[in-house]
Amino acid sequence: MSYTVPEPKIFACEQSTVLAEKIAESFGADLGRVTFSKYSDGEFQPSFEESIRGSRIFIIGSTHPGTENLMEMLLMLDAAKRASARHITAVLPYFGWARQDRKDKPRVPIGAKLVAKLLETAGATRIITMDLHADQIQGFFEKPVDHLFASTIFLPYLESLKLDNLTIASPDMGGSKRAYAYSKFLESDVVICYKQRKKANVIDHMELIGDVEGKNVVLVDDMVDTAGTLTTAADLMIERGAISVRAITTHALLSGNAYERIEDSKLEELIVTDSIPLRKESPKVKVLTCANLFADVMQRVHQNTSISSKFLM
């Protein structure tokens, strides 16, 4: 008797439903049916409202704080495992807790490693994510990880701007590798910002390494949280003679008074993806969807074909 491989099914965590609907539409499928029962104390329970036995399923959900977003994904994975799904792929447009990728002082956790183990224990047999805060997080998993780069989304947009005297900038030393990769593709110059912090999210001092006079500068980073680094860098570059400063950041956390900082800064625009739902709209924030990228890679994973063309850098 021949066995027909069932069509893949796509499900969404509640906080990523809008993006999941875009991904499913690009994929050419409907979102699967899931309900969430909620108790008055905040506890919730997901339930798949259709059979997934023997199926390849994709569960889409970013795991940005608060913790309920991660817990949602873990419960969905566990439910899928117990419902006998054949392959369970956790699609994490944003992999949260990734800034805790090492012990940077005594007696602290390695949160990214813990989250990786939780996802695997809950039932994930594969991970698809985008622009991890640190590339080495892939090594925290024992299951296959497809680490996508938002450069495949951002580079066509940057090219469409046709900026003269383009210079790519990294807002800190840690992002220099990413900045050099963009500059190599765009054949542009690179400058680096050197910053010192008093504590998390608080910049004590920033210096600019390189010349930006007469240049159109594009800052490149993987995430923007309070926007303190990007706005300080943009203001510094305008002071040093830059014509314009833009920023591209994959994950728009935009917490605290980030929106106010951006709108009051010298940034021309902040270009982000929809990996995380925005709290509100801003005239300076432009959103490019990552739905087509994820849908394409999910199709290739299902068909067991190469995804290497999705790695521009």
From TrEMBL:
Keywords: ATP-binding, Cytoplasm, Kinase, Magnesium, Metal-binding, Nucleotide biosynthesis, Nucleotide-binding, Transferase. GO terms for biological process: 5-phosphoribose 1-diphosphate biosynthetic process; purine nucleotide biosynthetic process; ribonucleoside monophosphate biosynthetic process. One of its GO terms (molecular function) is kinase activity. It catalyses: D-ribose 5-phosphate + ATP = 5-phospho-alpha-D-ribose 1-diphosphate + AMP + H(+). One of its GO terms (cellular component) is cytoplasm. It comes from the Bacteria. Signal peptide: none annotated. Residues 9-123 form the Ribose-phosphate pyrophosphokinase N-terminal domain. SUPFAM superfamilies: PRTase-like. Its EC number is 2.7.6.1. CDD domains: PRTases_typeI. InterPro entries: PRib_PP_synth_CS, Pribosyltran_N, PRTase-like, PRTase_dom, Rib-P_diPkinase. Pfam families: Pribosyl_synth, Pribosyltran_N. This is ribose-phosphate diphosphokinase.
